Fold:
Amino acid sequence: MIKEQTKLDIDNVDVFYGKKQAIFNVDLEIKKNQVTAFIGPSGCGKSTLLRCFNRMNDLIDICKVSGSILLDSVNILDKKLDLVRLRTKVGMVFQKPNPFPKSIYDNVAYGPKIHGLCEDISELDEVVEKSLKSAGLWNEVKDRLNEPGTGISGGQQQRLCIARAIATNPDVILMDEPCSALDPIATARVEELMQELKKNYTIIVVTHNMQQAARVSEKTAFFHLGHLIEFGNTEEIFTSPNEIKTQDYITGRFG
Amino acid sequence: MIETHDHISSAFNNELFHLNNTLLEMGRTLENMYEKSINAFDQKNDAASKEVISNDEKIDDLENSIINQIQVLIAKRQPMAVDLRVLVGCTRIAGYMERIGDLISSVNKRNITLIEYNIENEKKDIIDLFSSAMKLFQKSLDCFARKDFKLAEVVRSQDLDIDKQYKYFFNKLLEKMSRQSKLVVPGTHMLFIAKNLERLGDHATNIADSISYMATGEVKAPSRPKISE
Ligand SMILES: Nc1ncnc2c1ncn2[C@@H]1O[C@H](COP(=O)(O)OP(=O)(O)OP(=O)(O)O)[C@@H](O)[C@H]1O
Ligand SMILES: [Mg+2]
Structure:
């Protein structure tokens, strides 16, 4: 067994929206090159916590985050942190595929371009091709790179968004219900992709699909009303969880 | 942690309830087969033994029904945690009960063969062993009906008594057979019967262990001392 390395060390994190507290004192270690699933009932704070990892909550005026989140031992909650750099290191894929109203090519090229990650066009071409290949989309779109990114199927759009997220060569990929709008085949493709991607990236996925969490992740965190109730190896969480609350939730029981 | 709250889906609750009832019916059918077999043996009643043997078909049907129900439940409900363990546990229990049915049938087949022999001296030992096996099965059934995995420990320890009873009878009969050649044929049948009865005890223990597994997720209970023959 290779020793698990910590990628994100979350310590004592509280999140408030105005006076309302959405996350309570969460401690959690996200391991490198693993998939960690966040599960829990609607409104329990999964997206809120996920958005802490790329400081997306900064965009919400009333949202206040405290505690510390170390990404490779750098505290990303530090006020002086370079957010642009952080967001190239921590990519995000959302529930609804949201390609920019641009060509397929430009969707993927956008990040590397604005961050000045490429020297010239041929390098950019390479990044686009490599990212689309990693996202398992290249063969389907290589002859239509100039067509709009919004003109492909939902499953393809989601993989385009994944290609866009990996084009900036991030360390961590956050996925917020990435498959909820996809059919089983497109879902299987994205899940397969996650297994491929975790070799190079660390993935955190929020999902309402328990089977998906069980299939794709090594670790699972169960949240309830802003509290982290249980965190552990996915196999154990789904076969014999320690907490009644976890069991009630994953088996569809009244809590 | 075996039972918590009800599922939100009432259909799921009903399906589990139905599965539970089918297992209990299988258990009651076996209980009945045990009782009839003991009487058939005691009274050298071949008609009763034949009836028990024909009952085994019902056991097979019930097992099939259980496996079908579990299959559909897995496909429809994609069970997790305790639900998953209950379904895996029920699959195993149905298998053990099916084998119990088989063993009871073989004992009855040998009973029919033994009718022409005089086995008065061994009868009591076999009936005692048979009764112990039946009581142990009833306990494991009780354990299932109540989902009481603490009772499972009791079943495990009592199975040891059956092993002892078996070993005692085996040695005693073997020793007699070596002295009386007319005992060789009926004695061999009785040795097989005793072995089958001892196996019945093992399966009752397997059932109890499956109930512990449902409750705790521990796949294998710690191994218990085995009595060598
Ligand atoms: N922009 C916001 N302003 C105020 N409150 C918010 C805001 N976003 C989320 N909340 C509140 O914070 C809590 C956590 O919400 P969050 O979106 O993180 O939940 P979630 O677990 O992602 O739910 P879902 O599964 O429905 O996506 C909820 O009570 C929600 O109402
Ligand atoms: Mg959310």
Q: What stands out?
A: Residues 6-250 of chain A form a domain with the Rossmann fold fold (CATH 3.40.50.300). The first strand of chain A starts at residue 6 and ends at 17. Strands of chain A lie at 6-17, 20-31, 35-39, 63-71, 74-75, 90-93, 172-176, 202-206, 219-224, 227-233. Residues 121-134 of chain A form the longest helix (14 residues).
